[in-house]
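Lab manual, section 2.4: Encoding a predicted structure.

Procedure: take the sequence of the chain (194 residues), apply the prediction step described in section 2.3, and record the output as structure tokens. A sample record is shown.
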Amino acid sequence: MQDKYRTIANTGEGTYTEKRSKFLAFSHHVETVDEIKELLQQYRKKYYDARHVCYAYMLGPERTEFRANDDGEPSSTAGKPILGQINSAELTDILVVVVRYYGGVNLGTGGLIVAYREAAMQAIAASEIVSRTVEEVITYTFPYVMMNAVMRIVKEMSPRIVSQTFDNTCTISLGIKKSEAGILREKLNKLSFE
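Recorded output:
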């Protein structure tokens, strides 16, 4: 399991024109299928007069949830080339939408693949690519008398403190890189038996 993954921080736009057909591309940072559905609805509404609204998305740090849609274009000529650009940039949590206005001249399957690929590439290139850390949040409950021991581990491992409540019984939630989560959990659990 990798601790880092690449995504985009902002929206990017690109355009590509071929034989009077116009391809408008947009990239978005997304984290859920519901977000994607909402954005697609907005694009279909805004560009109601366009012939096709094709898209591809990739979700999750493991990059296992994805989809490509040709929206009426010949099979694999739109969604797949868009997804190919997402894959070649090794991105996730991203949606790329390409809106096509038909120019009256058929481009053929090769021409369509190139057009969708180029438009998607421009939208991705116009986005700021960022690296994010895959975190696991560990919540630990302990008596107040163990405060110093718990804080020693926090200081030693430097997790991000998500939340904390201190009373007779204390609770602390810590965010840490997925690869170090087991070590942190083990150290905290050992305290309970000292």
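Check your result against the sample. The mean pLDDT is 91.
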